[in-house]
Each structure stands twice: as C-alpha cells, then as structure tokens.
Description:
By secondary structure, this protein is α+β, with helices and mostly antiparallel strands. The chain has a single domain, classed as Diaminopimelate Epimerase, Chain A, domain 1 (Roll). Helices cover 38% and strands 30% of the residues. It is built from three helices and four strands; from the N terminus they run αββαββα. The chain has helices at 2-6, 39-49, 71-87; strands at residues 12-19, 22-29, 53-56, 60-65. It has a four-stranded antiparallel beta sheet. α2 packs antiparallel against α3. It starts with a helix and ends with a helix. The mean pLDDT is 94.
Amino acid sequence: MDQVKNKLAESIVILAVIQGDKISLVSGLTKGIPEAIHAGDLMQFVASQLDGKGGGRRDMAQGGGTKIIALPEVMSSVFVWVKEKLIN
Length: 88
C-alpha cells in the first residue's frame, strides 16, 4: 500500500485480493485527502458488504470478507461512499 500511495497524488486507494474463498482488503489515503474521509470507516463500509469485518486508522486500514461474488459491485459502491462523505 505504501508503494502505491507514494506514486499517487491526493488519492483514496482500496486493494482487494482473493485467496481461495476469502477476500483480503487494504485501504489507504494519501496526504491532502479531506478529514471527512477515513480509511477505517471506508474499510468497515466495504467489508460489511462482503460478509466480513475491517477497520483501522485514518490513513490506512485492513479487512476481509467471504462474499466474493459481490466484490465488483462493492468496489463500485466506494465512489458513491466517497462522494457522500465529501458532500456532507
């Protein structure tokens, strides 16, 4: 995650890896992202939709889940979540 963040300017990053029947997730924020966005909150939002758990710090979080079939739709929902956080 740190290597990805170091290559990006003002970004919200979420990565997912499927291993067997489980999904491993990590999220991170680069510097300059508004305080309304919290990587731990984002991870809880994503992992809960994948029948999993997650959390962490403002700048980096980890989680996982098992509902692999839902992963594409859940990843797309991140855009809506971020937009709502920035508007409110």
